[in-house]
Amino acid sequence: MNDDRRRALISQPQRRSLWILFLLLPAIVVMTLFVVWPLLSALRFAFYEFNGLSPSQFVGLENFRKVLFEEPFSDWTYNAFCHNVIVFFALMVFENGTAFLIAFALLKGLPGHRIHQVIIFLPVVLSSVIVGFLWKLFLHPMFGLVNGALALIDIQGPAWLGSESTALGSIIFANIWHWLGFPTLVLLAGMQRISAEVIEAARLDGAGDYVLLRRIIWPLIAPSVTIVCILTFIGSFNWFEIPYVMAGLTGSPGGSTDVLGLYFYRTAFGSVSSGIQDFGQGSALAVLMFLFVAGFSFVGLRFLRRREIQL
Amino acid sequence: MKNSSEWFKNGSIQALLVLNALIMLYPLVVMVLSSFKKNAEIFTAPFALPESFGFDNLQKVWDQTNFVRYMLNSLGVTAASIVLILVFGTMAAYAIARYEFRWSGAVLMFFISGMTIPLKLAIIPLFIQLDTLHLVDTYAGLVLVYVAMGLPSAVFIMTGFLRTLPRELEESARIDGANELLIMLKIMLPLARPAMVIVAIQNAVPIWNDFFFPLILITSDDLKTLPQGLTVFIGEFTTDWGVMFTGLTLAALPITLLYIVLSKQFIAGITQGAVK
Amino acid sequence: MRAFAGLLTAATIAWGLSAPFTYATDISFWTWRQEDKAAYNELFADFTKKNPDINVKFQSFPDENYPTIASTALAGGKGGDVIHTHAYGWLEQFVKSGYFVKQDASNMPSLANMSADALLSGTYRADSQVYSLPFASQTLGLFINKDVFEKAGLKAPTTWDEFIVVSKALKDKGVIPLANGLGTSWFNEMFVATFTGPLLGQEFVSDLKSGKATFKDPRYIAALTKLLELRAYMPTGFEGIDYSTAGQLFISGRAAMLAGGSFDISTYRAQNPKLKMDFIAPPAAKVGDIPQATKFFDGGYAVNAASPNKEAALKLVNWMGTKEFGDKFTALLGNISPIKGVDVKDPLLAEVAKLNETAMPHINVVYFRFEKPTGSELLQSGITKMMSGSITPEQLGGDVTNGLAKWYKPFQGK
């Protein structure tokens, strides 16, 4: 059969090559023009000083040095980076942890589990802009729904988005509400792939829920866990829309919600009321963020994959 | 004994699930209800039903903003992007999956590596690039950027799917003398429809919801998409909460309705790639 | 009848002939002031009446994204023919890249109508040339809700001590004394400028310029420390009260005072036409001090160097520097035009204009926004921390000074 095919093709090799080229060309051209070239340019820009808005002179690693080691920029970079780290761990524990428990509860197939899947996934399809604005209104210190509810039980709610101690947590909460359905259903799908016999056998051996989770389900859904972790990592370090809508470009109050995405945007483009723009420093930040995310995703993926095999 | 403790446990799990469903749904219910309210009602009775289900706020949105325009723009841009992603992505995937050629592995890697790159970080040169092509502030420019972003995963998913199709069909058609184009269009692609639906939904949701690229690439008000328009709108109505909730409700409506109808495909589409 | 028909025919022919011969030029005006659309359209209609061959299209963008949109467009040789710019350092980055046309007596005779300190806001430091024709001065001071004060039987405060006494009395009556919050960072900076201005005085500004003083100076630290006293009179949860909520609190009468900008007078009036308000100088350090509001020039009108319609754009901008424009601009928008001899008919605005005569400059905006890190970035991020008590005024003063010393020579080594 394979011989037939080869014969048919060799008889007109040039037409075949042209045909393949025709199939590939549109996708490759679009990718090259709008992904590859801009990325390479961004890399180049990171090594230039910008005179206003156009590259003026090659400065080597100067932009990187400023972003990483020169105060106050380094403080701001570090401050934003720490928040990304907090966001990552908070999402791992609260979002993915909750998702894991809900997935396990849904696995039991209690009445209404199908409709629950539809409900929990609904916010995922909404725009981050909608979710951000919605929660910004709900969290308003005076007229918001949340403090309105607290007032009913005689608690004076804080200015959620306004005080340094609660702002980042509030935005993380909105993010969890927005995305919870995603890890839940990914993990649920992983659990559902475990064959019923395996679970049944464990049950017959007298395993309770905890033992079942710990010994059977956890190891067997390792691939789903890997994917959820990696996606959470990438998402946490590219976080932009929700904090942008809820906290504004400057990560208010007092930079307590500043994350790398906002800081990059502000550094590159400036903001009306405070900063001026610097494409060089902005590009350097972008390159560092890319290297960090890509590097750690790669290492993390290898580590988690190895773990999957061991489990 | 065991039965009753089992019953108790399932009961409490069920209760927690119901609570969770409420947390997920209630904010959206309030959003919809508040869209019928005036400021004073929202502030003094946030939990109450609206005094009347009038359309004052809707009227304001309709009369004073470009909302309908934004929605149509989003629709057009999303539809055009999806069509191009499907056409270009399937073509490339077909070449990689169904033919053996020298660089096929490298080409696939080229596309896959695109999946890991956040294009946002290259927005400055991307803008300059689009500008030299005279595509800034046009639908075409925005669509091409979305196509470029959607292609990697489309090629990846389609390649994986097309590879699973049996060779026999194709071979017998070839022996019958059908040309490659016909084989692709008439025989192979109809079989790939489920994968195409996945690719379409997987891309449609983020494109419909995207805020960042229109923010920078679109400047004319007439060309703005819905999430971007929503920020303009909220900037103009910051003090009128009723109108703001109406705007949010309207913006959420189309995709929510579609989701309710096609929830299975939506879930499959968005979790695709994470679930294998 | 026939004559009428003939006339009609002749008119039709004349119209048909004349139409193709008027080459109307369409130019666009880019701004972040979305809310000023109606007023500008009215002003542009006046311009088109005088220059029937030029039509002006108003295009506005959300203010938070305006720098991004304007700079990306200009970098690509696009953008509106006339660009509404912010002033001082913001302008400079655009001028450096050559995006704007230089304005001088030959192409912009109406520069002569501007005062020297106004022109400074549109001047590029490196060549001392003007690139953006100033459009408005803004004054920061204290809004007073007269009805609330009257009902409480109180008088608007003029000194810091009076301010505290009045605030205590208002608080006892269940009114929020001061509507300000810290939820919006640019508004924070104005809050600081408003209240510290009278405590610092003009001499401190000249000391900053000469390098005799920095923000570590005891005068500045003392002024910052005073701000901490205000916390007791701001709304509960003031850390999270943003600019628009503060405005709402004030115009609804739930708060009695608001430190804000003259640019909001017309907005507040529009939102509550029944509101009786006053705009006064912020509390002075002691009795008998001259009233010191804070003043800065908001920005100006620049001509895009890449515009294909430069002639028409220059014509428009020049017209925007005439008294005719300034009078109507001031009347319609409630902003004070910097054009000499402009009529300020509105009594409240006239008071603002009077405050301007003795006002302090908005220090950060006028002197410290030229390079990274800007004084604004440093102060805006630090002030919330100081007001919430996580850093001291000394630390804030130190942080701002050290940050600025990166590029501001007079601070280096101090």
Describe what is shown at a glance.
Chain A is built from 15 helices and two strands. Chain A has helices spanning 2-10, 13-45, 62-69, 73-107, 113-125, 128-138, 145-152, 167-179, 181-193, 196-204, 209-220, 222-237, 241-247, 260-269, 279-310; strands at 48-51, 54-58. In chain C, the strands form two sheets. In chain C, strands 1, 2, 3, 6, 7, 8, 9, 10 and 11 form a nine-stranded mixed beta sheet that branches.
Main attributes of the structure:
heterotrimer, A: 311 residues, mainly alpha, two-stranded antiparallel sheet, 15 helices, 74% helix, C: 414 residues, alpha/beta, nine-stranded mixed sheet, 11 strands
Note the overall shape of chain B.
Answer: globular
The overall average pLDDT of chain C, rounded, is: 88
The N- and C-terminal alpha carbons of chain B lie at a distance of: 41 Å
Count every helix of chain C, treating DSSP H or I runs of 4 or more residues as helices: 17
Class computed from helices, strands and strand pairing of chain C: alpha/beta
Q: What sequence of helices (H) and strands (E) makes up the elements of chain C?
A: HEHEHEHHEEEHHEHHHEHEEHHHEHHH
**Quick one: how many beta strands of chain B?**
0
Q: Hey, roughly how much beta strand do the residues of chain B contain?
A: under 5%
SS field, number of helical segments of chain B: 14
Helix content of chain C: 40-55%
Evaluate the radius of gyration of chain C. 24 Å
Q: Decide which structural class fits the backbone of chain B.
A: mainly alpha
The 3D shape of chain C can be described as: globular
Let me know the largest β-sheet of chain C. 9 strands, mixed
